[in-house]
Amino acid sequence: MKERAFVLFSQIALGALVVALWQAGASAGLLDPFFFSRPTDIARRIATWIATGSLWRHLLVTIEESLLGLVIGAAIGITLGFWLARSPFVARVLDPYIKMLNAIPRVVLAPLFLLWFGLGIWSKVALAVTLVFFVMFFNTYQGVRDADRVLIDNVRMLGATPRQLTRHVLIPSALTWIFSSLQTSLGFAMVGAVVGEYLGAARGLGYVISQAEGTFDTTGVFAGMTVLAIVVVIVSAGVTRLERWLLRWKAA
Amino acid sequence: MSAAAAPALEFDRVSRDFIAPGGETYRAVDDLSFAIEPGAFVALVGPSGCGKSTVLNMAAGLLAPSSGRVRVDGVELAGLNRHATYMFQQDALLPWKTIRDNVALGLTLSGVARQESRARVDSWLERVGLSAFASHYPAQLSGGMRKRAAMAQNWIIDRGMLLMDEPFSALDVHTRQRMESELLALWEARDASAKKTVVFVTHDLEEAIALADDVIVLSAGPASRMVARHAVPLERPRDLFELRTSAAFVDLYKSIWSVLREEVRKVELRA
To answer: What dotted CATH number matches A49-246?
Structure first.
């Protein structure tokens, strides 16, 4: 407990040090505020956004897109992962195609999605889905394939039907893998949403950042990035707790 | 042949081949025949790699013989052996279920409602001394406790046959002796007519003699066969802590070891 407090203290101290150096550098004229802005300016900008309510408007859109991307990507990835793990023939046929699709840089898909799904949230959701899907797919596939042979045999000997085998062994076994990848998936979902917004949108944090860049407003860019970073830290702390609870049966 | 007179388990000229990674055929078990009477406790011993587990997996129906027949209560086995439960060498408890849910698993799978199974689960948890650990997960328990939970998981659904694949080999020697005693206590507690048929695989001859009515010695693999079958005419109930030093036990050990020694030596020469 003492150690944890010390780690937290050190983490905060490190952040404060970087911010302080940044501020000092800007004041001393070492860092040109036009290119690097200033922590105080950034804080003031975020405060303005909060006061006018524009922060919530954009942030909620980004979170909505990320969550939709996460849920849809997870649903497709988990279903397909399960199916392929249970059908080795299909898995072998699809293998090169899955690798090819995964190798596509998602940014190049963004313009296509804009054409297909329009400027609204769905083109961003689609981009998030393409990122989340593969993480979920590979983890589910591995999780099912990795299910312990002895556990499967034991449950079968105890009288499990194929359906019960899936429910009591294969799904929980895959869930360990899926939960462990939740952190990554969530990060990817947000990346997908923000990149999508950045490349063409009328709302969202990515849109805010790209607008600021368009007017050489570095303070706006950093403010957008700061908000994004804070959201990710909060969400990932939540995911960590959820994960710990869901996987509580694992050895401490 | 009436079902009552049939052996509980019968191997009739059973062989089993595997395809090695290189593509050549590897014969694990060759032309193996034996019969086990209902309610008997039989140990299968042999040097490591002799196909003991293969034999047990065929008895369980997890593996099909390449040739020959496996009969259970006189009926040829097709698919899983529904008269048997299986206790594995490795941990086979579901790590994501509590000890209570693990013990109840066989009942849950056959559709018994939670409330109905509760009393039975409680009594089994008590019998194996795990009442206080009902809501723990397997990872929170010691190896011996996990084996006890596995024992309860197997006994609660009360099938006529219990297949055991070196179930205690991973335990330290004292825990192991205690588990052996507990197993015998469970098994000997039944009337002769309700006794389970036990097939117990081990590489430890001492353990085999201490527990079993009959010891079957398998030859070194590949193409393992039965080289001897010895009756163990030691009185029951047995006190395992005293038994091992008794003259009768030592004599039996010497005579069976003289057979097994040759097989163990073959493995050593090859290695």
So the answer is: 1.10.3720.10
